[in-house]
Amino acid sequence: MEVSDVTRPESRALRNSTNSTARASSFFKIICFQVFQVFQVCAETLSRMAVGLQIVGLFLGVVSWCLQSSCTSNQVWKMRSQSESVTTSQWQFEGLWMSCAATSMGSIQCSKFKTVLGLSAHLQTCRALMILSLLFGLTSIVVSVLGLKCTKLGRTPEQVKAKIVLSGGILFILSGLFTLIAVSWYAARVINDFYDPLYGGVRFELGTGLYLGWAAAGLAILGGSMLCCSSKTTPSSPPARQFSYYSTTGRSIYRAAPASDASGSKAYV
């Protein structure tokens, strides 16, 4: 009887300690699953934000391509300075493809550049850069549309579509850089000739076509950067499995439903 009286409190304390450990372990598992649930909700929110970022980036890219087209065909890349004009009733301006003269009566006469080889090197380079920017911009629009998360392209996985969007964003950025180099180089030559005291030709000032080019370059680079940022895929969730936690009494105290459930993950107590 004495041995029984001694061992009974010890066994009771051991059972209490085991029950406390099991409860703490079960509580810790529940907390871990709740944290995982929050992580899933955050991942879904980021995915929705990525879709919006892609749409805005593509919209900016399309607008930039339209501005690039207007800039390329614009004939007012530079206009004659009024400080050198004998009369203010006549204006002279030039673009990449032709030179024009206008009068206050509304008449405009334009003449195309008769030769390509006789043009200055910077003008030929600006032509090539603007054409490349248009080609890259059109290609990037098509590629970006195919890679959007809101578009369906067969059974293309999300990782592949993310790479497609990334390629479209890079093409947009290259298109913007080509435009930026072309208009900045052209503007630098105009400014250099204007302030050069040894320059004997007609002095020109910056025209509206250059400002269109700078706006187009900025929008293209911004839109491409947004597409590149949205191409980062969220980490994939672990495989869906149904599991349960049990207390020491054998009763199920927690069960997680598969992640494929329509309402997400459910917990039961």
Automatic annotation (TrEMBL):
<dbReference type="GO" id="GO:0005198">
    <property type="term" value="F:structural molecule activity"/>
</dbReference>
<keyword id="KW-0472">Membrane</keyword>
<feature type="transmembrane region" description="Helical">
    <location>
        <begin position="208"/>
        <end position="229"/>
    </location>
</feature>
<comment type="similarity">
    <text>Belongs to the claudin family.</text>
</comment>
<dbReference type="InterPro" id="IPR017974">
    <property type="entry name" value="Claudin_CS"/>
</dbReference>
<keyword id="KW-1133">Transmembrane helix</keyword>
<keyword id="KW-0812">Transmembrane</keyword>
<dbReference type="GO" id="GO:0005923">
    <property type="term" value="C:bicellular tight junction"/>
</dbReference>
<feature type="transmembrane region" description="Helical">
    <location>
        <begin position="128"/>
        <end position="148"/>
    </location>
</feature>
<feature type="transmembrane region" description="Helical">
    <location>
        <begin position="169"/>
        <end position="188"/>
    </location>
</feature>
<keyword id="KW-1003">Cell membrane</keyword>
<dbReference type="InterPro" id="IPR004031">
    <property type="entry name" value="PMP22/EMP/MP20/Claudin"/>
</dbReference>
<dbReference type="Pfam" id="PF00822">
    <property type="entry name" value="PMP22_Claudin"/>
</dbReference>
<keyword id="KW-0796">Tight junction</keyword>
<dbReference type="GO" id="GO:0005886">
    <property type="term" value="C:plasma membrane"/>
</dbReference>
<dbReference type="InterPro" id="IPR006187">
    <property type="entry name" value="Claudin"/>
</dbReference>
<keyword id="KW-0965">Cell junction</keyword>
<protein>
    <submittedName>
        <fullName>Claudin 15-like b</fullName>
    </submittedName>
</protein>
<dbReference type="GO" id="GO:0035622">
    <property type="term" value="P:intrahepatic bile duct development"/>
</dbReference>
